[in-house]
Amino acid sequence: MSNAIDAVLIAGPTASGKSAVALALAERLGGMIVNTDSMQVYREARILTARPSIEDEARAPHMLYGHVGVREPYSVGRYQEDAAKALAKAKLPIFVGGTGLYFAALTEGLAEIPPVPASIREAVRQKRGAMGADAFHAGLAARDPASANLRAGDTQRTLRAMEVLEATGEPLSYWQTKAGKPVLEGLKLARFVLAPPRPVLHARIEARFDAMLKSGAMEEAAGLSGLDPALPAAKILGLRELQAARARAMDLATAATLAKTATRQYAKRQLTWFRHRMGGWHWVEAQELSNIIPEILSHLS
Q: Are both 249 and 138 inside the same structural domain?
């Protein structure tokens, strides 16, 4: 069955059960699981990012999990390079995760944007700090209308858009039209999006965060204190709320409620991306592993 395709891609919102599906498939087909989630690359945040457990990692080969420090500015460009190396080692790679941009790098290719000098990065950060998020975003949108869709509070993306504009003289949208070679170009792919019903997804988000708290999420968040808010890892779901609770800026119950709400909102944004960019993939709405695996296997033959 696995001879019919070269790679399996499994996308889905957070808490949709992707990791369990990928593990079951890897055991069934002798595949290697390759992370396609921008937060699960961080080694110091296994609990908060819901990385596969040590026990699960022992059941099948896993790659690109926990191989980056939280204080490293990991990017989609680096992910492309890492994914290409993983592909060369895998007999049947099973790419699984929730980061749409990483799947775009695999299947569509992304632009090779010229590097931004450190001096420009620092100048742009200082400018945002002096102006404030809203004024900075307004200035960016005036020069690069495509960036108006970014949220003013999205530190990472607004900084990146302005950095590229300052360094190259062209907006980020210009470079994004110059796609490079997809990592999986020329391969036979089986593409799936897991999309359980919204009430089911929300219940799983609630239960998973409660389980994270029991497993040491608060202690893990304490170990991540002092992160530069401009770093990608600073966007780990639940991190900000738990650190606020630790600092006694709010009680733990309030922090948990806010973290769960933020996670539901993030899942909604993920599904919006998938519908827009992955509408032609096979969407799996089944809820249970016992139903999902047969449905996927039927499409691999």
A: no
